[in-house]
Specification:
It is built from eleven helices and 21 strands. By secondary structure, it is α+β, with helices and mostly antiparallel strands. It folds into five domains: 95 residues; 113 residues, 2-Layer Sandwich (TATA-Binding Protein), CATH 3.30.310; 41 residues; 118 residues, Tick-borne Encephalitis virus Glycoprotein, domain 1, CATH 2.60.98; 103 residues, no CATH class.
Length: 509
């Protein structure tokens, strides 16, 4: 008889349940999972793994990728290209994990922030003696010959001397002293969350909307395109990306450690590329060197690499008149105005060959090294005749065709300033200044992590009430959210400072 009504009641409740209750349960579970710390750690680990893949597999915007790609097997090219591993930071799944992790951080912050904020907005000002006896550290004192108010003020003064902020409250026959320091530390985790979100946001803007390409520049050359790598499964191709301005190279320079050494990186202090940028805003001059990138309209110019074929920025020539006379010395710079000789002959630096040879009647170089350097010169005689002359560092006989006098002069290359044939600039487009947001977030993360781990929120309560044998019983206890050892040390010093310093006759119970 008794079982029937219970079963009937259950049936009624099941029938009365709303249709959306199951959906509500599942949506709650989904949100709980999405905002859980465990789920956030899983997503963070996945992002770290993908980032490590991006470090182990060379990315397409890095200089030297062409050589790396050429040595891969066809299967590697196919699999890596299909998975997008050559450009992993732009893949849909990497950005999806980034968005989900960001959502996890936001939801976890919303879920836990009210409790953290309560430590600051509504601190616990009183605590029972039973609660304090359960804390570590704790102390029980007997205060004689003073009333509760004076005892509380003395305890508060001792706590203030120890670096705590204090408040005194009374409830009936009991008085409470509350002391704390570093309450803001409870919000440190949320500052870390903000820093992480800034890093993710900056990285997302840079990786998703940004573009990186290369531009090869020789003095006098202009370009309004950068070359980027594009993949279609296992096929790589180079595509041009138009810029909203034109870049003209006015000069390139390489500062060498040893002047007579090679132009390889081991013998180089710095590379400098002087450029002129022209757009609807006008023209501006800029210098891009190794440790000083140049920023313009969301584009950042970096030194990336160079063409290893040797060339010369400046050449110093010794000119000897065919009819005799004292030699003359002339210094010419590539891309600059030439020189005018006393007889009216104009001479200009036209080209340079590090290892001179003639191929089919044209000047070429046998190697990129400075084995047989020669300067190619352009002469204009007083009569207006245009001639081509060659100046070698090694003396040549008059009978040699390239060493024969030209325009009444013999030429000798006595010195030259070594530079590569061309510099390659890496130009990175960051439309939303994602890199700036990223760096600010990184700096904030370092500061907040230091604040979170090197500081703590410490709380101490003192419960004061009349003792049955006379005097007042004081029960003191406290806790901290981290660095328990340091807190216990400060607590002991605080307790030892109460007697004598603050004129209390205290007895440790």
């Amino acid at each position: 008889m008794s079982a029937t009504p219970a079963e009937t009641k259950t049936d009624v409740l099941l029938k009365a349940s709303p249709t959306g209750s199951t959906l509500d349960v599942w949506s709650t579970k989904f949100l709980d999972t999405l905002s859980s710390v465990r789920f956030g750690i899983i997503m963070l680990v996945l992002l770290v793994v993908l980032s490590m893949v991006g470090m182990l597999i060379m990315q397409q915007e890095i200089d030297g990728f062409d050589k790396y790609y050429a040595v891969l097997t066809p299967s590697q090219k196919l699999v890596y290209g299909w998975l997008g591993l050559f450009d992993i930071y732009h893949t849909w799944y990497f950005n999806l994990f980034l968005i989900v992790l960001s959502l996890n951080i936001v939801l976890a912050s919303i879920d836990r922030f009210p409790k953290a904020w309560s430590f600051i907005s509504r601190p616990k000002l009183d605590a029972s003696a039973k609660y304090l006896r359960g804390q570590k550290p704790r102390a029980e004192l007997i205060v004689n010959d003073v009333d509760r108010t004076r005892a509380a003020e003395s305890l508060a003064s001792a706590a203030q001397a120890a670096g705590y902020k204090t408040r005194i409250t009374e409830k009936g026959e009991r008085t409470f002293v509350f002391a704390e320091r570093g309450a803001w530390n409870r919000l440190g985790a949320y500052a870390v969350h903000v820093a992480l979100l800034m890093i993710f946001l900056g990285g997302f803007f840079t990786n998703y909307f940004g573009r990186t390409g290369n531009m090869s520049l020789t003095p006098g050359a202009s370009s309004s395109q950068i070359l980027i790598s594009v993949f279609d499964l296992d096929q790589q191709r180079r595509a041009g990306l138009n810029l909203p301005f034109t870049v003209t190279c006015t000069d390139i320079q390489q500062k060498l450690i040893k002047k007579d050494g090679t132009i390889q990186p081991a013998n180089t202090i710095d590379w400098l590329t002087r450029i002129r940028i022209k757009d609807e805003r006008g023209e501006r001059e800029a210098v891009v060197n190794l440790n000083n990138p140049y920023d313009y309209r969301g584009y950042r110019f970096f030194q990336a690499s160079f063409n290893p074929t040797g060339s010369a920025r400046k050449v110093t020539l010794q000119l000897t008149r065919q009819g005799g006379g004292a030699p003359q010395e002339v210094t010419l710079q590539r891309g600059a105005a030439g020189a005018t000789l006393p007889d009216g002959t104009q001479i200009q630096y036209a080209d340079f060959s590090p290892d001179f040879r003639l191929a089919g009647g044209r000047v070429a170089t046998a190697s990129p090294d400075y084995n047989n350097p020669a300067a190619i010169l352009s002469l204009t005689t007083p009569a207006g005749e245009r001639l081509r002359a060659y100046a070698f560092s090694k003396p040549l006989p008059d009978g040699a065709p390239v060493g024969a006098p030209v325009g009444g002069y013999k030429f000798r290359l006595t010195d030259f300033e070594k530079v590569p044939l061309a510099h390659v600039l890496s130009i990175k487009y960051d439309p939303f200044y994602g890199s700036t947001i990223f760096y600010i977030g990184g700096g904030l993360l370092c500061l907040t992590l230091c604040a979170v781990f090197f500081f703590s929120h410490e709380r101490i309560w003192a419960h004061i009430e009349q003792h049955e044998e006379g005097g007042h019983e004081v029960v003191i206890g406290g806790n901290t959210n981290r660095n328990q050892t340091g807190f216990e040390d400060r607590f002991r010093k605080f307790i030892s400072s109460i007697d004598g310093t603050h004129n209390l006759e205290v007895k440790q119970s």
